[in-house]
Specification:
This is PAS domain-containing protein. The chain is an alpha+beta fold. The protein is built from eight helices and five strands. Strands 2-1-5-4-3 form a five-stranded antiparallel sheet.
Amino acid sequence: MTETVSATSEGQPTLAQIAEGSPYLIGTFRFWFDDQRWEWSDQVAELHGYQPGTVTPTTELLLAHKHPDDRDTVAETLAAAVRRGEPFCSRHRIIDTTGTMHHVLVVGDRLHDDTGATAGTAGYYVDLTAGLDQNKREALDAALPEFVEARAVIEQAKGVLMFVYGINAEQAFRVLQWRSQETNTKLRVLAGKLIGVIDAFDGAPVKVRTQFDHLLLTVHEHPDPKPEQ
C-alpha cells in the first residue's frame, strides 16, 4: 500500500474514523491480480454471512453476493481496477447468505509487491446499513467526493513527474511522498500546488513537441501495453 485509502481533506473525517465504534462495521480485504486471489478479514466474511475461515473468497463468489441491479457495475469497476492498476471506490448493495441486504462502501488502493510493481488492490469494506447514524451517513457522503478528488489530483501530479523525469508511477509517487514529508505538506495539497503552477512552464521544447506529435498520431498502431506483474 502506498497511501491510506482513508485520506481525506483537512477538517474531514477519514473513512475509518466515520466507521469507528463498531468492530463489525468495517473490514479489510486484499485482491491479488495475478492469480485472482482474495483475502478477507473476519469482518468481511461475516458481512457476507460466513463464519470466519469457512469459505475461500473468489471473484465469482463476491459477484454472486452483489445485488442483481449492482452486479454488472461492480464487475466493470473491478475489471477496470485490474486492467489499469488503479485505486477504485464503489458504493453498492450485497446480499448475505441469509438473504439480508447490506449497503456497503468498498474503497481499494494499490497493493505493491517487493519490486514496487502494482500487484493487486487492498482496502476497506464499510457496512452502511447498520451502526451508522444519520450524521455519520452525511459525513461519509461528504468525505467520499473529497477522497475521489484527492486521488485525481495526485494522479495528475504523478503523470507530470513521470513525463518530466522519465520515471514510473511508483517512483513518481515516492517523489511526491518525499516532498510531502520534507515540507510537512499534505500530499493532496502538494499535488494540487504542483498542478496549479505547471502553467508557468510554457510547454515542452519544440523538438519534444514534434516528437510527441508523431507519437500522438501513431499511438494507435503501437502494441497494447503489457499488464504489470
